[in-house]
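[SOLVED] Predicted holo structure with nicotinamide-adenine-dinucleotide

Edit: marking solved, answer below. Original request kept for reference. I posted the sequence and ligand SMILES and asked for the 3D complex as structure tokens.
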Amino acid sequence: MPTITVKTATASYPVVVEQNCLQQQKKTIEGLLANYSHVLVITDQHVSILYKEVCDWLQNSSNSVLPFVTPNGESAKTFAIYEAAMTHMISHNLDRKSVIVALGGGAVGDLAGFVAASYMRGIDFIQLPTTVLAHDSAVGGKTAINHPLAKNIVGAFHQPQAVYYDTSLLASLPERQMRSGFAELIKHGLIADATLLAEVMANYQNCASLYARDMTPFLTKGIQIKADIVAEDEREQGIRAYLNFGHTFGHAVEAAGDFKHWFHGEAIMIGMKFALLLSQQLTGLQFDVTRWQHWAEKLGYDFSLPPTLTFEQLYDKMMHDKKNNLSSDSFCFVERGRSTDFTSCDENTVSRSI
Ligand SMILES: NC(=O)c1ccc[n+]([C@@H]2O[C@H](COP(=O)([O-])OP(=O)(O)OC[C@H]3O[C@@H](n4cnc5c(N)ncnc54)[C@H](O)[C@@H]3O)[C@@H](O)[C@H]2O)c1
Ligand SMILES: O=C(O)C(=O)C[C@@H](O)[C@H](O)[C@H](O)COP(=O)(O)O
Ligand SMILES: [Zn+2]
């Protein structure tokens, strides 16, 4: 079974990535769950219907299994849903020997992980990712919910006990979700592996190819890139910021759309274009952004922003980014046609992590 081991300062855990791995690892997962007093399965409405058989299996896998079904998408990552999950756990007497199983995409995983990180100051959790995007979100231990003013602003680093990524579940993803998740794979190529980026660009030339070609080998490479970075810098004191490539601008775009207009990966593609152009200006990066954008547009990515959205609005949102160090004067951005005003920053670091 293809397994990547994530080893950080605080944890070591397997990430099993394979088509049908939930079926193949059934006994192992049941054995794992049997170690706990209670199991809380957090999933969203879509997944609970689409993958009812997985939910039923989990429900019967062990004693004392409780479901908790969230709204779909970003609406799961709210204070209200976080509180509802806590209420559910307290009223069903979940104790410190309980485990949370996150069955779903990044939104479910981020919420479930944060609930696990904070319930009784921390209980175990296991990730069963179901989206392309979750090859990124299920690994590395970043967990969070949103505040209306800022994305992922309330959260914790809390590593899962294990990740079982059944890539056969990806076939049911709608086109926009497929594309959104694929953006994080493109990111992994851009930040760490030019060969992976070239392979991805050669193998996926239109939207249909996202379904036609098994993504498992590419997603596995993306996960390995993430695992290596997280192993070196679990709490984003340095190089983990590379995994945030495109996210300063991208999160601002997401927030500007009230977390509804753009999916995460759609906004991150826009953010990565911004970061690439900025890197060209600041560091002389040699990269053909136009060719990359044309390729991405063939897959259906849309880089346009509404004319009503001003740079000032995005700038305000970028001020909330967790990577900011507002005590220094190194926080500046460039916009099309605007002057570059990087007086005292480390250009390489800033442009790589925006
Ligand atoms: N923690 C991290 O390191 C990290 C990394 C990247 C992104 N994220 C976060 O992840 C979130 C986005 O995750 P996402 O794109 O997976 O979104 P998501 O969890 O909202 O899922 C997207 C949609 O797809 C549906 N869905 C899930 N699995 C499906 C399947 N197999 N078939 C059909 N539909 C399915 C869901 O019901 C939902 O409507 C964002 O909040 C982002 O901030 C976190
Ligand atoms: O794991 C990381 O580190 C990442 O930055 C991965 C990102 O794809 C992800 O969207 C993450 O949640 C963003 O982190 P944040 O710290 O900017 O909220
Ligand atoms: Zn991301």
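OP edit: The chain is about 45% helix and 15% strand. Thanks to everyone who chimed in.
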